[in-house]
Amino acid sequence: MPPKEATEKVAEDQSSFLRSTRKVRDFFSIPAPVKQLFDLVPVVTYPPNQVPLRAPKPARIPSLYVFSKDQDAAAGRPSFNPSCLKWQTFLNIAGVDHRLVSSNNHSSPTGSLPFLLPAIYGSNTSQDSLVPIASNKFVKYATEHGGNVEESSTMRYGAYQSLLDHRIRNAWLYTLYLEPLNFSAVAYPLYVSPTSSNSLVRASISHQLRAAAEAELLKHTSIIDTDDLYSEADKAFEALSILLGDDSWFFGNDKPALFDASVFAYTQLLLDDELGWREKKLCRALRRRANLVQHRERLLVRYFGGP
């Protein structure tokens, strides 16, 4: 194409593009009568909506949301859930003042309990400082807020923590959810009954809980061997008993720490007769270790006011 014709073609394309752009702009522009109306009635920016009434409420001290009965939470009694009880005990040990709030997973921003809602210190408290804190940040929170946090630096720590996270937890899942007598006597009134009065809803939740426990156990084995689960938990209790020895606290510490809270989270619940255990294999395995029983009693008296 000759240069002159090419130049004319470019100019024509640019003109066509500008005409199309004006049409699009005109299409989305506000008609003059409407614009005059908006000029007379300016746009008003409303403040953000208030937090829903059922949402967590900030308080003058941090609020720890846990599985608990309302009356037990009000009295500061131990949670009936091991994960919640571990961190409830840790905060008590660290000296972090807090209040308990009876809750469930549906109210948690992370989908699980526990979580901590920081305290509100006045009208100037920023919204960013009221973001719920997940349990994996509790140690950091306690350290930053004057908590007395001490933890063992021994290389054996991870190995013994593994006993709790796997052998004892697996046996706990089985004895609570998959032992029929214990599910009816313990798990059902704690986790199912409070959720609904509808029998179909309760049946569905029961199935979900048992299925979730079974699926968790099958992550580690192709079949669920009951005898093996209890045998491994028994060995784990023996190892913990040997580790504790004649000391008051694990790893020879002068005061309890996070590991003590982790052990207490299971020993307290297995030794709590008020929960109504019917099948007591795991409870008996623990009771055979007198120093673990005494360890539980020391923590119960010191941080929860006794039995």
TrEMBL record:
CDD domains (UniProt xref): GST_C_Metaxin
The name this protein goes by in its record: Mitochondrial outer membrane protein
GO biological process, one term: mitochondrion organization
A single Gene Ontology CC term: SAM complex
A Pfam family hit: GST_N_4
InterPro entries documented for this protein: Metaxin_GST (IPR033468), Mito_Protein_Transport_Metaxin (IPR050931), Thioredoxin-like_fold (IPR012336)
Chain ranges passing through the membrane: none
Taxonomic superkingdom: Eukaryota
Domain Metaxin glutathione S-transferase: 233-299
All copies of domain Thioredoxin-like fold, residue ranges: 82-181
Signal peptide range in chain numbering: none
